[in-house]
Structures are given as C-alpha cells and as structure tokens.
Hints:
The chain is 29% helix and 44% strand. By secondary structure, it is an alpha+beta fold. The protein has a seven-stranded antiparallel sheet, sandwiched between helices. A hairpin with a 2-residue loop joins strand 1 and strand 2 (26-32). Helix 3 packs across helix 4.
Amino acid sequence: MKMSEEIRNMIQKMPFIPLATQGKEGPHLIVVGKGFVVDDETVAFFGWRQGKTSENIRNNGTIQIVVVSDEKNRGFRLEGKGRIETEGETYGRLKDSFPGQLGKLGFVTVMEVERVESLL
C-alpha cells in the first residue's frame, strides 16, 4: 500500500518509532531509531539490539509501527511484512548513505507497508 506524503514526512521527522512484532509469547514492542522511507511502500530501520524482534520477523514477518505528527493532531498505524537484510538493495542504499552506522550495526529491518490506519 502506498504511503501518503504526509505519512512519509512523519516517518522522516520522528527521532524514534515504536515497532511491534508478534511472537509465540504475544506482542513484542520496542522503540527503533529513525525510519528511512525507501519508496512509497517501504520503510527501513537500522538494526540495533533487536534479538527478539528479529526472531519474530523471521518467524512470521508481521510488523506494526506508529507515527505521529507534533505539528498536527494526526497519527497513523502502519502494518506490513518485515525482513532482516544483511545485504541487498535496501541494505546497500543505507550503507552507502550512512557507512559509519551500518559498519557498526550490520543489518537493517525493512518493512513493506500493506495497511495504513488513521489513529486520530
């Protein structure tokens, strides 16, 4: 599903984004750093210490994030399929743009947006 320009701008402005995955024990919620809009349907995040999150993504792939605007009373929940990349196009793009970060981190979390829901 294509993200609107408003949503893409929110993602790029938020310093941290809540990211939820689903595991055998139930939902698992973390906060990831800045999100990077890859295209109208894809968001990527640097991979920090995401042991349980990465495991859940590998097992079922479902990711939800929430983005909000500090300028307007607006927010959105985005749901989609996730994957962990240690190589590939998205990994390569972020590594080229931020070589110092991926040199230390080693992977990116990529989300293909399938559903967008207004929260406010």
